[in-house]
Amino acid sequence: MPIVEEHKESGSLLIVGKRQQIDYSLHPSIVGEMFRPEEFQMEPLNPLEPSSSGVCVFGLNDGCDRLEAIRSLAWFNEYFIEAELGRGTHLNSIRGTVNSRMEYDHVSQHQLSTLLSLLRLQYKKASFEFANLNMQSQQAFELARRGAPRPRVLGSPLIFGLDLCYFKLPYFKLNIQINGETDQFLCDFIHEIGLNLSTVASTRKLRRTRQGFFGIEHALLDKHFHLESVLKNILMCEKILAKNLEENLNCEIIELNEDNEKEKNLENENLPELEDCLKLPFGREYKIC
């Protein structure tokens, strides 16, 4: 805003400077708030419970309309779950109160690994059923050679990968690659593992490290929750979707993630040696009287 004064001799008006004036044209007191909460619509692709952590993909405004199409691709999600044997909680929840205690000293790494192998086989068989494939057909054989078939019947949890990362009584850690799950299903799954080992088990920590094409390297932290970082992340996610969406639209198999082999191998260094099941409790040299 110009500063005007009279000339001492002629009396004409002269501009002698400028003064900064506040622009009230967009002031909230004049026009109201620029944005309102109801103008933003956010919907998670696969929600996480408050007690869980990790990668969570959201749809924003028009992006919410694309979530159903993305869910139909049957992406797999990857989790690392830390659990404890001999401890049961209310509703098997992470933050639930402890309501049961049982002995766990009889559980060995070999028993847990054997159980996980059986579960992998059962879910692999179920994956062909959910893909509407005949187990005796040539098509099922060809898909089994290439990988896991993509499920056509959605809504039911299917485990594609199940590995033991750490074992030291009473604690163990699992890496799970799964589709159609919820946090409650995973907590119940850990509880069922405990029951099959003649004890109880509960989830201590649940962390999702990958959701489809998106991993922890694409996620925003709390310190990044500002306009510039959010816009950059939206553009990055659009590029990832454009690159991978068409490739996986007609693909009949699910490619499992193998990028975590390094992490699993590092943790496997802490695993105790497997129990020798052929070792005799008595000496091999003995006499029969």
UniProtKB/TrEMBL annotation:
<dbReference type="GO" id="GO:0003723">
    <property type="term" value="F:RNA binding"/>
</dbReference>
<dbReference type="Pfam" id="PF01509">
    <property type="entry name" value="TruB_N"/>
</dbReference>
<dbReference type="InterPro" id="IPR020103">
    <property type="entry name" value="PsdUridine_synth_cat_dom_sf"/>
</dbReference>
<dbReference type="GO" id="GO:0009982">
    <property type="term" value="F:pseudouridine synthase activity"/>
</dbReference>
<feature type="coiled-coil region">
    <location>
        <begin position="242"/>
        <end position="269"/>
    </location>
</feature>
<dbReference type="InterPro" id="IPR002501">
    <property type="entry name" value="PsdUridine_synth_N"/>
</dbReference>
<protein>
    <submittedName>
        <fullName>Pseudouridine synthase II N-terminal domain-containing protein</fullName>
    </submittedName>
</protein>
<feature type="domain" description="Pseudouridine synthase II N-terminal">
    <location>
        <begin position="48"/>
        <end position="181"/>
    </location>
</feature>
<comment type="similarity">
    <text>Belongs to the pseudouridine synthase TruB family.</text>
</comment>
<keyword id="KW-0175">Coiled coil</keyword>
<dbReference type="InterPro" id="IPR039048">
    <property type="entry name" value="Trub2"/>
</dbReference>
<dbReference type="GO" id="GO:0001522">
    <property type="term" value="P:pseudouridine synthesis"/>
</dbReference>
<dbReference type="GO" id="GO:0006396">
    <property type="term" value="P:RNA processing"/>
</dbReference>
